């Protein structure tokens, strides 16, 4: 990868605050550059990578990445913090929901990618194997696209390795989340998957915090991301300020079930993110434009609604929400 510094920046790789632009090696990514801020302490230490804007409408995460650039002091920290506030550069000012406009792929479901693949595939490969290589943790911030409402939750990957699991869980618990979700191992077997799952296949740690709603910028959501990231930095030993108080109970979940609509129409939800649900409980109804109920949508298992779509018009086969299954619950 290549970096070009702004005029008010230190030299890349040296103690201080680097601000500039990053370009990656793959020809598939030619013509694009990424804003990057890297703060490096005078003492060597851990490396933390932070990104947002895989989905450009998830603006509270992007704003958190901007603010975090000014919350690390190279004079007193150890190691380095590298921040890319907007991953999906082709989506800037295009407002795409979930996808990269160049290839129609959801970048977050494309890891680990491949260098000679489509734009999204090459970008995922570059994130893993160029920018964040050697990092002790990647924090991939998400949540609150234009037509979704998301509870405060954090995902990490269950690997079967007790030490790696414990470290991932420790990083995830740094966020004041309602739910901490250990993604089941089937996510590691997918060809295109989440960043925590892809990183885990290489014995690396990534966590994915989610929060927000409807593409709106809110201080509560921004604070969720900022304070969680700072707590991760404290846990890694990059900074030594006191940890932020955790107020939520943080229910631990170990399965993640998406709920899809069996028919298209107007969906009227009857539960909200954070609500507990029982197996078979009605989540809502889908009706036509005559007000006639076409079908009921029911919970596939007992758990908690982690997020839901807020726009009532939903196509047949489209996702409507997702259920987190509480850890250690007998099924």
UniProtKB/TrEMBL annotation:
SUPFAM superfamilies: Zn-dependent exopeptidases (SSF53187). InterPro entries: AstE_AspA_cat, N-alpha-Ac-DABA-like, N-alpha-Ac-DABA_deacetylase. Residues 44-235 form the Succinylglutamate desuccinylase/Aspartoacylase catalytic domain. Keywords: Hydrolase, Metal-binding, Zinc. It holds the Pfam family AstE_AspA_cat. The keyword Secreted does not apply. One of its GO terms (molecular function) is hydrolase activity, acting on ester bonds. Its cofactor is Zn(2+). This is Succinylglutamate desuccinylase. The lineage of its organism: Bacteria, Pseudomonadati, Pseudomonadota, Alphaproteobacteria, Hyphomicrobiales.
């Amino acid at each position: 990868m290549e970096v070009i510094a702004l005029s008010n920046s230190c030299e890349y790789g040296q103690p201080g605050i680097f601000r500039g632009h990053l370009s990656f090696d793959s020809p598939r990514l030619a013509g694009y550059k990424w804003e990057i801020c890297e703060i490096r302490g005078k003492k060597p230490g851990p490396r933390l990578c932070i990104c947002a804007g895989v989905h450009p409408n998830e603006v509270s995460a992007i704003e958190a990445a901007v603010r975090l650039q000014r919350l690390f002091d190279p004079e007193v920290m150890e190691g380095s913090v590298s921040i890319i506030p907007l991953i999906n550069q082709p989506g800037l000012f295009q407002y795409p929901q979930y996808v990269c406009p160049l290839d129609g792929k959801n970048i977050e479901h494309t890891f680990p990618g491949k260098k000679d693949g489509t734009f999204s595939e090459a970008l995922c490969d570059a994130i893993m194997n160029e920018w964040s290589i050697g990092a002790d943790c990647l924090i991939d911030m998400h949540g609150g696209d234009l037509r979704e409402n998301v509870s405060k939750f954090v995902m990490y990957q269950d690997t079967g390795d007790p030490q790696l699991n414990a470290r991932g869980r420790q990083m995830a618990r740094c966020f004041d989340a309602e739910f901490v979700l250990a993604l089941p191992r089937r996510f590691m077997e997918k060809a295109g998957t989440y960043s925590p799952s892809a990183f885990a296949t290489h014995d690396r740690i990534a966590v994915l915090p989610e929060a927000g709603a409807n593409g709106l910028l809110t201080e509560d959501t921004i604070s969720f991301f900022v304070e969680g990231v700072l707590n991760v930095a404290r846990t890694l030993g990059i900074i030594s300020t006191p940890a932020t108080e955790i107020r939520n109970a943080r229910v631990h979940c170990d399965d993640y079930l998406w709920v899809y609509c069996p028919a298209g129409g107007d969906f009227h939800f009857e539960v909200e993110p954070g609500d507990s649900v029982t197996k078979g409980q009605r989540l809502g109804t889908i009706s036509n434009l005559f007000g006639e109920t076409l079908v009921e949508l029911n919970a596939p298992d007992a758990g908690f609604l982690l997020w839901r779509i807020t726009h009532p018009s939903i196509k047949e086969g489209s996702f409507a929400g997702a259920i987190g299954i509480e850890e250690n619950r007998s099924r």
